[in-house]
Batch of 2 targets.
Target 1
Amino acid sequence: MVAIACWASAAWQADDTRLRDRFYSDMDHPLSADPPASGAEAEEQSLRSNTAGPVITFSPARQTVPLVFASPHSGRAYPADFVAAARLDPLTLRRSEDGFVDELFAAAPHFGAPLIAATFPRAYCDPNREPWELDPAMFEEPLPVWVNTKSPRVGAGLGTIARIVSSGETIYRKKLRFAEAERRVRQFWEPYHDQLSRLVENTKMEFGACLLIDCHSMPCSGYPKTSSTRSLAEFVLGDVHGTTCCGYATDFVERALAGMGYVVRRNDPYAGGYVTRHYGRPREGLHALQIEIARSLYMDEARIERSPDFAALHHDVTRLIASLARAAAALIGGRIPNRS
């Protein structure tokens, strides 16, 4: 099935409403900053699961550019058993979300590029980690020897199965069984990467190269000032210090955003996560660039709601997508196929 996300202008409003109703009606419920009314009932009302599966791909009728956009951390379909096992209220449980990032980049299919989005939350299973980055202190039994228990992400409590939300609070009431982690990896992490891998490989096959844009947002407490006298960085571009994406593409995105008046920084403090490092292999024609957007530009972080500035940022992100669509093939050495 082909679903085209058309969310960049009033002319597309009908498709916008239809797609959002179909895929997010059970997920997209703004939460109040007030305490929940009562335990399980409030959790059930505030965090609802959807039936769309672990990943949604919004594809153009025909892909015309060597671009793929991905939003691994915007999922907001919370399984009921996960909510029940958490010691946090629904609003706090959502602190790790890159809220509404999938919507900011939703115009990608209009410009000929697919957009993939996880529907599950990163607090439940993080697709921007290796599949087996697990904290042994979280589990009832010893973990298999092949599990990565020593990564910096695990040490920070933010492994594949996170111990904490991004604001630092512990998620679970009690320890988990390894079988639960394995189930989440098999049913959520793997389907996401199976689909992303197909999109990237098919794009390279069709165009000779692929530029993957991995889309994220950063909390106001997590992004740096560009200097002691300048404002906070509003976008951080991560190409793992020039190793996962050709310099022309990173330069192009930086210039485009700076030309719109945004303060842009590279690789500090976000150089790129698992997705960027795993898929970014420029010598093979596969380029990956992570984009982090300051949440203060478009949302109320305390309430996890879109702010009045959302539309303006959405417009600028759409301009960036349009510019990349025009330039991508030239930037990464791809080709536009000759179609009769």
Target 2
Amino acid sequence: MRAPRRLRKIALAGVVLVAAYAGWIGISLLFLPPVASLANPRASLVITVKDWNRKDHPFVLGPRNRFWTPISAVPPSLKKAVVAAEDANFYVHEGVDYEAMREAIKTDLQKGKFVRGGSTITQQVAKNVFLSREKTITRKIKELILARRLDDTLSKSRILELYLNAVELGPMIYGVGRASHYYFGKPPSALTVRESAFLASMLPGPKVYNPYRKLNRVMMRSSRILRRMYAARMITEEQYRAALAETPNISGLERKVETTMAAPPPEEKAPVPLAGSEPVILESPPGKEAGPEAPGEPPPSGTDGMPQGVEPGAPVEPAR
């Protein structure tokens, strides 16, 4: 008699804990930050990023960052490489790719550990701007809800613009504008197809795909990305073969990485205190949109030629 009674108490305690946890999640969802402020292309946000020593740093996401790269200045090859590498259904889903999530969960269960996240580009924007990096069920639920709200509120172009300017691509190297200058000494608009795939190959994590220590791994993944782009008709056969034959020039990388890890570059330090759970909004001067492009350099065209299935039915929306 005692055993069944004890089991009932344990079961009841479990139900109470689950109900309490569900209630706590429900309450926390009521206080999620609004996403409407991200629709303003002139606003700059102060978010928190980490260096490779796990220390927090403020980071300006927007036109007040001198490496800010508006979507109109991102070359088509880089947009296509990032979509091919990170979120093939970006232009189709509504912020969350449930099929990709299902496959990620299946893979994680088979491996017995966290291997794939299944996060879309939109989910990563939600995480980078509003949430912490902790891997918990609560954070994942918040991420899913914020991603749906972002997709409802912002254009795909704006979401991709925020993602490309906040993504980590090296030790305190955040954003494609900074990364393009850091690795290749040129603005993003001057990147070749191979260089675009090279940067996209580091997106799972620049510590794992670190060209400083594991250049061959980065080159192999960038070649796989090029194959995906060619198979999806994002690039022509001529572009594909030329990109495979190219070796990116990353001379001086060892010195750069060691210097950057020793001390974050001063231009990345924001002029305001660290943000809390919600990003600080800074208004940029009227008319300021430019990033690291050279004076008088015409911005590249949009994503003309984006294949069916990657961006079905319509071109990328213009930057606003």
